[in-house]
Amino acid sequence: MAKTTSSSYLFVFAALALFAVMMMNEMPVSMAACQVTQLSPCLNAISSNAKPSATCCSRLRSQVPCLCTYARDPNLSKYVTNPSARRVAQICRVAVPRC
């Protein structure tokens, strides 16, 4: 009986540990830090026909969960919904969500 109880505790502990790891892996996506300033490396590419830098593309990928929030903000929407911003996203191979 004691062996079964120990095995049960071990199973519960392993399940909780797995759940914790899964939650930690999901946090960056589900709790993304929406900071539009992270997209500042993209300003040159958006405001001109310049090619976006690798830093721009990396930051754009990290901010994808936030793009709809930016698009709804009257002060920011012109930067994320205009054709130049879409061009930058396309060059960076970033799928822009439909908001």
Automatic annotation (TrEMBL):
Q: Which residues form the Bifunctional inhibitor/plant lipid transfer protein/seed storage helical domain?
A: 34-99
Origin, by domain of life? Eukaryota
Q: Does the keyword Signal apply?
A: yes
Family annotation (InterPro entries): Bifun_inhib/LTP/seed_sf (IPR036312), Bifunc_inhib/LTP/seed_store (IPR016140), nsLTP2 (IPR033872)
Residues making up the signal peptide according to the UniProt record: 1-32
Provide a GO biological process annotation.
Answer: lipid transport
- Which residues span the membrane? none
GO terms for MF = lipid binding
Keywords, sorted A to Z:
Lipid-binding, Signal, Transport
Asked if the Swiss-Prot or TrEMBL record annotates the protein with the keyword Signal, the reply is: yes
Protein name from the UniProt record? Bifunctional inhibitor/plant lipid transfer protein/seed storage helical domain-containing protein
Please give the organism. Papaver somniferum
